[in-house]
């Protein structure tokens, strides 16, 4: 209810009371009773005044008048009462509404205050939550980092424990089973294999596991009609590698020996005792700058290397035969070698340049007729630890033994190492010296005889070039081709052909020779190797006319030589004592060729227990001679000419145990 309504109702109440005040005064009492919440009841009580009670009539008149007034007043009072009741009810409603409004306002204010406080609390809680989240995140990150650190520490500890355990095992292993032996500052690596081997030959050579390739018998020899089977353990090898370092210089020494030497007491009657012989014995000094010097007995620099020109990297055919293959270039001999390695100047290759001075030996010669006015070799002096016999080589008509050398053989080589290839180019210089007697009457050329002329030393220079290429197109195959050509270079081939022949006046002449080897080596599995080789060697015919009817030619393989006994077998007495070369069979070699196939099976290949290896090879060898007289006599009508040929089939088998 509004203020205006309240004022109107108050005015009405005042107007209603005015008539009542003009009458006789009555005593009126209004009593308001609260009936129910929000409702009121008004009762009007009228009392007569004490001053007006003087007479009955008057009293009655007044009573009537009072009753009238009472009736009138009662209606008015009733209306007023009703209005008051309504007013009271409305006021109660107003009060209730006011109170409710106040309460609502207060509640709203309280709600606003609470909301404001809640918002502030929410903001504070949000900030606190964010702070807590940040703290939790930081704690989480710290926990994760701690976990990572703990995990790393656990891993490190586990790795450390494993490393310690492994190192303990390795240390125990090295103590109990050392791969090398340490003596002061020297590291010693033993080298040893035990070999049990055998060879079967279709045509006998009276030879152990080693095959004299240029001696396979022609059909006229008794051996050409008998097979040969020999077992041996003589290729068993013993050696050691010694290594140390001082500052920037690395030192190494190496030796290896086997039992393929033969002495005067060696035999196969019962004890089969053969001599322990030197294969290699050398020392090496190498600086970090790539300079290396090697001295002692080792493989010749003409031998193909697997890396740079380093010793102990030589590439040998996978043969059981220690004479290796026809066409293979090699020698083992004393000498001095110096090499220099360079970086990668082009095409990603490493370059090594090397030169060596190696012990020389002039290998045998053969001539139809030999002058007697020179010499270049002699039998060894046993006091000087050379054999008095046994150094004969080739098809020499006379024992050559040890040549008396003027200078060493000089070998120079450049090696290129690529990721999958190794290339070598080299040259060889040789010096053949003889003592010549021009006044001797036994020269084959009478015009060359100078009576009373003083003897003198004569030197002839020979040599040639060599090359090799080895490639690895795939990890399971290696291909190689190597060869040498020159004058007087046959000594460096496996065939042991002659280096020089002689002129009618006694001067030496180097013989042209060429030999080479093709290699195919495969590795189908880590335990199994298959390989094949083909090698050939050519010796050029070198002949000079003498002017003497009885001996018209001298030199190597003149056509006048007799080969009449090469193809016809005769009783041993007429076969030159049953030797491999029958009587009347010069058979000087023009071309030797050999093909070989084989396999190696490593049944056990353990770095701790060693290697057990089986090997077998098959070889076909053919020897073709220069043309000679096969029937009749040279210079006589009816003489026939031909080229003798000898063949050989061989099977080698081997079982070896290599120490780790």
How are the SSEs placed, and which strands pair?
Blueprint (H helix, E strand, L loop, with lengths): L2 H20 L3 E11 L2 E10 L7 H121 L4 E3 L2 E16 L26 E5 L4 E10 L2 E13 L13 E13 L3 E9 L32 E10 L8 E9 L15 E2 L1 E2 L23 E2 L5 E10 L2 E16 L19 E19 L2 E11 L12 E3 L5 E3 L1 E14 L2 E12 L2 E4 L7 E4 L32 E18 L3 E16 L2 E4 L8 E3 L2 E14 L2
Antiparallel strand pairs: 1-2, 3-4, 4-5, 4-6, 4-29, 6-7, 7-8, 8-9, 9-10, 10-11, 11-15, 12-16, 13-14, 15-16, 16-17, 17-18, 18-21, 19-20, 21-22, 22-25, 23-24, 25-26, 26-29, 27-28
In brief, what are we looking at here?
This protein has 660 residues and is α+β, with helices and mostly antiparallel strands.
What labels describe this entry?
660 residues, alpha+beta, 2 domains, 16-stranded antiparallel β-barrel, 40% strand
Overall structural domain count = 2
| Beta strands, count | 29
Principal-axis shape: rod-shaped
Q: Which class of secondary structure composition applies to the elements?
A: alpha+beta
Helix content: 10-25%
In spatial order, strands of the major sheet run 4-6-7-8-9-10-11-15-16-17-18-21-22-25-26-29
Mean pLDDT: 83
Distance between the ends: 120 Å
Rg from C-alpha positions? 64 Å
User: Can you summarize the main beta sheet?
Assistant: 16 strands, antiparallel, barrel
Poorly predicted ranges = 15-27, 32-54, 393-400
| Tally of helical segments | 2
Estimated share of beta-strand residues = 35-45%
């Amino acid at each position: 209810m509004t203020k205006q309504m309240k004022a109107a109702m108050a005015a009405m109440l005042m107007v209603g009371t005015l008539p009542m005040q003009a009458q006789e005064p009555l005593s009126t009492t209004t009593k308001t009773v609260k009936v129910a919440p929000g409702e009121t009841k008004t009762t009007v009580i009228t009392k007569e005044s004490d001053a007006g009670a003087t007479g009955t009539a008057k009293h009655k008149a007044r009573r009537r008048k009072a009753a009238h007034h009472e009736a009138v007043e009662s209606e008015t009072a009733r209306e007023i009462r009703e209005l008051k009741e309504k007013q009271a009810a409305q006021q109660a409603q107003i009060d209730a509404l006011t109170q409710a409004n106040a309460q609502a306002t207060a509640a709203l204010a309280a709600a606003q205050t609470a909301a404001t406080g809640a918002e502030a609390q929410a903001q504070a809680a949000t900030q606190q939550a964010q702070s807590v989240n940040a703290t939790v995140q930081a704690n989480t990150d710290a926990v994760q980092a701690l976990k990572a650190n703990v995990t790393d520490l656990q891993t490190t500890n586990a790795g450390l424990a494993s490393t310690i355990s492994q190192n303990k095992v390795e240390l125990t292993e090295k103590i109990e089973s050392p791969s090398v032996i340490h003596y002061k500052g020297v590291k010693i690596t033993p080298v040893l294999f035990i070999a049990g081997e055998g060879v079967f030959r279709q045509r006998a050579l009276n030879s152990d596991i080693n095959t004299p390739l240029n001696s396979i018998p022609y059909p006229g020899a008794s051996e050409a009609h008998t097979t040969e089977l020999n077992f041996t353990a003589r290729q068993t090898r013993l050696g050691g590698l010694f290594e140390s370092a001082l500052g920037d210089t690395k030192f190494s020494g190496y030796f290896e020996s086997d039992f393929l030497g033969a002495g005067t007491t060696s035999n196969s009657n019962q004890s089969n005792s053969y001599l322990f012989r030197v294969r290699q014995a050398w020392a090496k000094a190498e600086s970090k700058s790539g300079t290396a010097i090697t001295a002692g007995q080792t493989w010749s620099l003409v031998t193909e290397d697997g890396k740079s020109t380093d010793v102990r990297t030589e590439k040998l055919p996978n043969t059981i035969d220690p004479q290796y293959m026809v066409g293979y270039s090699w020698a083992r001999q004393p000498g001095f070698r110096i090499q220099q390695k360079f970086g990668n100047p082009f095409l990603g290759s490493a370059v090594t340049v090397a030169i060596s001075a190696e012990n020389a030996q002039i290998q045998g010669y053969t001539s139809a007729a030999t002058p007697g006015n020179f010499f270049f070799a002699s039998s060894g002096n046993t006091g000087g630890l050379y054999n008095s016999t046994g150094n004969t080589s080739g098809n020499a008509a006379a024992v050559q033994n040890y040549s008396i050398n003027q200078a060493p053989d000089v070998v120079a080589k450049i090696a290129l190492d690529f990721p999958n290839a190794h290339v070598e180019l080299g040259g060889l210089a040789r010096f053949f010296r003889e003592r010549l007697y021009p006044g001797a009457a036994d020269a084959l050329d009478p015009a060359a005889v100078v009576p009373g002329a003083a003897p003198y030393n004569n030197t002839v220079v020979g040599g040639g070039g060599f090359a090799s290429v080895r490639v690895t197109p795939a990890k399971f195959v290696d291909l190689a081709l190597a060869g040498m050509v020159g004058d007087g270079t046959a000594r460096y081939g496996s065939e042991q052909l002659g280096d020089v022949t002689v002129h009618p006046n006694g001067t030496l002449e180097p013989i042209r020779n060429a030999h080479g080897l093709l290699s195919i080596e495969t590795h189908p599995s880590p335990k199994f190797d298959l390989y094949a080789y083909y090698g050939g060697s050519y010796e050029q015919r070198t002949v000079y006319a003498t002017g003497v009817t009885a001996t018209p030619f001298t030199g190597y393989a003149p056509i006048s030589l007799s080969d009449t006994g090469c193809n016809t077998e005769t009783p041993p007495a007429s076969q030159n004592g049953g030797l491999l070369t029958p009587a009347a069979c010069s058979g000087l070699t023009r071309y030797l060729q050999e093909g070989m196939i084989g396999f190696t099976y490593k049944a056990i290949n353990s770095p701790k227990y060693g290697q057990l290896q089986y090997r077998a090879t098959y070889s076909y060898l053919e020897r073709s001679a220069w043309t000679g007289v096969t029937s009749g006599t040279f210079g006589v009508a009816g003489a026939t000419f031909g080229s003798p040929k000898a063949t050989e089939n061989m099977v080698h088998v081997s079982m070896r145990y290599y120490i780790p």
